[in-house]
């Protein structure tokens, strides 16, 4: 079962667009401290990946001058520059005062927005990753239908919490991850769009 979902800015941990927890523990008095701890840890990982990508973009040191040495390094450098645009990862949170039982967070950063799914440690991480991809695609498709692009994404997410919750309700009913093949994913997306079209 999914423990919680967080969507926030990749620039800092103060811009939170959506926070939804599915358990009583997630919604207790320590909710804000838990959110901040998760967001800070994910941002640390995000900035670490960006730093590693920028460090590897330095020109390679030439030792023997063989073409074989230059070619793989050039490919790695080009790949690392592309990787800086989208960062992702899996982070473990051990049992602590914030988490009675250890949790795992699967996260992706796309266009300066971080999407996080916090799961129980025994949850199927492939399902969590697939759900996250589906959620990101659905959110961005919904925003594009309103003509939103570029730097306006964060502003639009701040002003559309109901739509985010409707998408989340359709794609993750009661916080339970389900296997999604292409047909089921399209059905879930159509449900989300139907809910959004009913909004006055």
TrEMBL record:
Sorted alphabetically, the Gene Ontology BP terms of this entry are:
double-strand break repair via homologous recombination; endosomal transport
Q: Which GO terms describe its cellular component?
A: AP-type membrane coat adaptor complex; cytosol; late endosome; lysosome
User: Which InterPro entries does this UniProt record tie to the protein?
Assistant: AP-5_subunit_s1 (IPR029392)
- Sections of the chain in a coiled coil: none
| Source organism, top-level taxon | Eukaryota
Please state what the protein is called. Answer: AP complex mu/sigma subunit domain-containing protein
Natural source organism: Chromera velia CCMP2878
């Amino acid at each position: 079962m999914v423990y919680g979902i967080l969507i926030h800015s990749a620039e800092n941990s103060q811009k939170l667009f959506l926070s939804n927890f599915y358990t009583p523990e997630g919604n207790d008095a320590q909710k804000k401290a838990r959110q901040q701890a998760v967001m800070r840890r994910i941002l640390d990982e995000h900035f670490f990946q960006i730093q590693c990508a920028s460090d590897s973009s330095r020109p390679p040191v030439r030792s023997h001058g063989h073409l074989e040495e230059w070619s793989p390094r050039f490919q790695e450098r080009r790949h690392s520059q592309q990787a800086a645009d989208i960062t992702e990862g899996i982070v473990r949170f051990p049992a602590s005062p914030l988490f009675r039982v250890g949790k795992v967070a699967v996260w992706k950063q796309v266009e300066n927005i971080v999407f996080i799914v916090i799961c129980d440690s025994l949850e199927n991480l492939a399902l969590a990753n697939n759900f996250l991809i589906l959620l990101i695609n659905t959110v961005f498709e919904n925003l594009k239908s309103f003509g939103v692009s570029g730097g306006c994404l964060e502003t639009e997410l701040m002003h559309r919490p109901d739509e985010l919750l409707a998408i989340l309700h359709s794609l993750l009913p009661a916080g339970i991850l389900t296997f999604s093949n292409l047909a089921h994913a399209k059905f879930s997306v159509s449900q989300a769009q139907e809910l959004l079209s009913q909004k006055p």
